[in-house]
Structure formats: structure tokens, C-alpha cells
Amino acid sequence: MRLIELRANKESFNTVSFNPNGVSIIAAIKETDNKKKTFNSVGKSLTIALVHFCLASNPNPEFEEKLKDWEFSLDFQIKGTSYTSLRNTNNQSDIFLNGEKFTLDKFRKKLEDELFNIPPDSKYISFRGLISRFIRPYKYSYTDYDKYIKAEDKTITESVNNAFLLGLDIQRILKKTELKDSLDKVEQQKKNIEKDEILKAYFEGEDAEEDIDIKIIELETTLKKLANNLSNFKIAEDYTQIKSEADSLSAEIKKINNRAIKYEVALKNIDRSLEIKPDISRQKILNLYSEAKLQLSDMIVKRLEDLENFNKKIISNRTKRLLDDKKKFTIHLHDIKANLKILSKKEDEKLQYLNAHGALEEFTMLNKQLSDTDKKLNKLNQFKKLKGEYKDKIEEINKDFLDENIGTRKYLESIKSVTNENIIKFKNFVEQFYDDKKSGITIISNENINKKRFEINAKIADDAGDSVNEVKLFCYDWTILTAQNNHNVEFIFHDSRILDGMDPRQISTLFTIANNECKKGFQYIISLNQNIIESLESEMNKEDLEEYITNNIVLTLSDKSDKDKLLGIQVDLNYEL
């Protein structure tokens, strides 16, 4: 693929006609003394954005809003066949190819098939990702040699696309990715199990997992007991009523029993009262006075006799009353005890009935205990099974990782001709910039547990120095282009950013390399600022300057007026979306 022409449906647009063979330079010059105007906003980078727009990049809201009714066309060739793509800013979801309408996805697939030898059923690789390796789309794309699209940064997509253009087997990357995904899935399943509230209660101890068989047996035993109790359980529909009656009987028995105790206490008190006798009789008093040789008068003796008779009468009456009370209390106590016997019998009958039967609530609770125990048992059995499967799967995956590591090392040995060619090309380009810096592209097998199959590293000794990154980027891009691994792209389009930090000698070398390689059938497009062109005047002789620079300028943009900018109008666009 090589670019032929970029144009628009507006007369103000400055058409870009690329040299089909050789170098094409889009020059940006400053023609005014106005310090506020610079050649940095005349449309150099916009040219790259519009080429991508015509190659089915994602819709750009800025174009729709600020370039309404604009239509851009790109002529290009693939293996000698001419194509024209056309896309309108108003309807960016469609794109035309040689007059035929395509969706963006179908257009991308069409060019993908024409340009890249992507194996069937491949993932993480696409036309848009690959074409961006030949026409770096953003400012970010110039931060490092293997960075193109920010969204790809350090992802499997970045690894696959980079490896593909170096001629590596991307299926090896995809296989390692699948292994890592499988490992992650198993580990996530393990984490989910460990979060289970039921299992967590069993596995909080240090040796908990080792006791799983013991816990299973304990639960099985408990489950059998509960199942047996449940099978023997009889539900009493009147359980609540019978229990209420039993409770009432119990309360009544307690109340009557308290009355019986009161009667028993009363009878004991009566018996004690009946045993009490007068302390001194009348005769004892008379004998006491006689012994004292004292003579009592007949009147006193008479009064003592009356007192004695009165006392006997009182005692007689009291005894009669106590005996009557005792008889009455004895009858009451007998009746109470007889009633207690009847009530106790009724209570026993009801309690026996309750002991032999259960309430529906109790049955439901027993059922719940059985269900909960069964659930815990199933969880533990499931955990035990999954734990075993987890260990087996981990061992299988680790074995697969080892097999893939061995296979990849053997594979890299078998394609030494390809990897060596990449190294030689890269070294040849670098050595034209530096005489004393070691360089190359190393490709080794990444044998860690991750998704990265190949460790790819383009090296230039002391690459932390000024402009070394830009040189590395240039040499790497030309290595990818000229190696022609898995692609039919025949051009590179660089923004002037690639020259940032390079000195005139290095820039001169860059154009020397580009012109020499283009003579082999490639196309190189680059934008240049005026100060770069002026710096080359002292570095190149007149003939080389004309051959490499002046004769290759296909479009000059300037700050003189709006019509001298790419769009021919003044509009502020954010096209790095």
C-alpha cells in the first residue's frame, strides 16, 4: 500500500499529492513577522488525522461539529490496484471505497484482508491497530518506538500487533493469554468459595482445611439424627390447646397445693394448742400456802375455787373449738388432696400427650435444622470437590506454561533467520547515525506467569541520550517496513515530531536513509518545519539538498493567510481524540 492523494470537496482545501515513489515532504514555513502566528498550526498533523479519517478511524465529533458538510477522499494503491476512499463528516459511520458503500467495520476488514496476513481466528489484532504502526496517529505515538495507540499501552493488543509485524507467531501469545485467563478464572472461583459465609465459618482456623473430612462426617451424623427425629415426629393439631390446658392445670394445682399447705399448718398449730395445760392448779396453791404455815381465808379459798372452775370452763370451751376446727380443717384438707389427685392425673395425661406429640412450629423448626445442615454438608462437599479440581487445574495449567516455555524457546531457535534479519536491518539503520553504539532487537521468551509471550526490546547503547529515542523510533519503523513481515504496506508517514531533538547531521542522515530505501520501492512521507529545512542548508551540499529535500516538497503550508493552511480556512480542531 502507498498513498497517492488526499483531497476534499471544498475548494479552499489544499490538496496533498504524494510522490508514489520516493520521499514526500509537507513543508510548513513562516512568512509573516507576527510572533503570534507559527508554522505549528498550519495543518501538518491534521494531514495525518485526515488520512486516518479516510482509513476508517473512529468517528470524530470535532469534524462533525466544525467541518460540517466536508467530504475527504484518499487515493491509494495496494499491489498495483488503485482505490479511492471517501468519507463525509456528517455521516461518519459510513465510508465509500471505489464508490461502494461500507460500514467502518466492513471497510476495515476489506483492507485488513488486502494488507495483512492475519491467521484465522486471531484475536487482539486488526487493520486499525496495524496501520497505525506505519502512520503514527498521535503525539503519544512518538513517546517510544513501540507505542502507537494509548489505549493499547501495556496490553495484550500491543504485544500481539508488535510481534506480528516482526514476523513472530502470535498464536503463541494467544495461547499464553488463554492459559493466564484460565488461571485467573480458577483463582477467582477459589476466592468466591472462600467468601461463602457458610464455608468461612468452617475455615477460619489455622488447620481448618485439613479437618474438612472430620467436619463432613460430623454433619452427616447430625443429618441422620435430624432425619430420624423428623420421621418419628407426630404433629398434634390441638397441641397449642392441650399445652394451654396443661398450663392452666399446673397453675390451678399450684394454687390448691398452697391452700393444702395452709390447712396442714393450721392443723399442726391446733395439735400444739391442745397439748398446752394450766401451769398451777388450785390444790397446788393451797399446798404451797399450807407449807408456808399461812392460813388463807375462806373467801380467798372460795375465789380460787371459782377461778379454777372458770379456767376449766375456758379450757374446755377452747378445746372444743380447736377440736371442731381440726375436724373441719381435716375434712377440707382431705377434699383438697382428693382434688389435687384428680388434677395431677389430668395434668400427667396432658403432659404425656405433649411429650408424645409436637407442634407444627416445632416440626417446621426441625425441618429447617435438617435443611440448614444438609446445605452446610453440600457446601463442604462442593468445596472439597472444587478444592481438588482447583489443585488439579492449577497443576495442569502450570504444566502447560512449562510446555509452552519450552516450545517457545525451541521456536525462537527455529526462526533465527527472521529474528536475525530484523537485528541486521535495525543495526544497519542505527550504524548510519552512530559509529560507536551497539544496537539490535532482542526477542526472548517471557517465562513468567503472565500474558506476555515475547520480550521484545529494540536497543541502542546509551539510549537515554538526546535524540536517541527519536533515532530508535525511526530505525524501528523502517525495520518493520522493509522486513515486510506479514504485510503489504509500502509507506511510512512521520510527523515532524520525530525530528524533535535531532541535530542537523542526524536529520541529514535520516533523509539519506529514506531516499536510499525509497529507491528500493518504498514511500516515505514526512512533515518539516522551516527551521529544519534551514538547518539542513548548512549540513547538505546543494545537490543533496535539492535531491533529498527541495525536489520532494509536495505541499507548502504557511502562516501567511488562512488560505495557505491545509483546510484553507481558520478553524480550531481537536483531532487527537
Describe the structure.
The protein has 577 residues and is of the alpha/beta class. 55% of the residues lie in helices and 12% in strands. The protein has a six-stranded antiparallel β-sheet with strand order 2-1-4-5-6-7, covered by helices on one side. Strands 10-11-3-12 form a four-stranded parallel β-sheet, sandwiched between helices. A hairpin with a 5-residue loop joins strand 5 and strand 6 (94-97). The mean pLDDT is 86.
Outline of this structure?
This protein is α/β, with parallel strands linked by helices and 577 residues long. It contains 17 helices and 12 strands.
Keywords, please?
577 residues, 6-stranded antiparallel β-sheet, 4-stranded parallel β-sheet, 12% strand
Relative helix content: 55-70%
The strands making up the biggest β-sheet line up spatially as 2-1-4-5-6-7
Indicate the radius of gyration in whole angstroms.
54 Å
Strand percentage lies at: 5-15%
Helices and strands, in N-to-C order? EEEHHEEEEHHHHHHHHHHHEEHEHEHHE
Number of strands: 12
Choose one word for the global shape: rod-shaped
Mean pLDDT: 86
Q: List the total number of helices.
A: 17
N-to-C terminal Cα separation, in Å?
25 Å
Structural class: alpha/beta
Low-confidence stretches: none
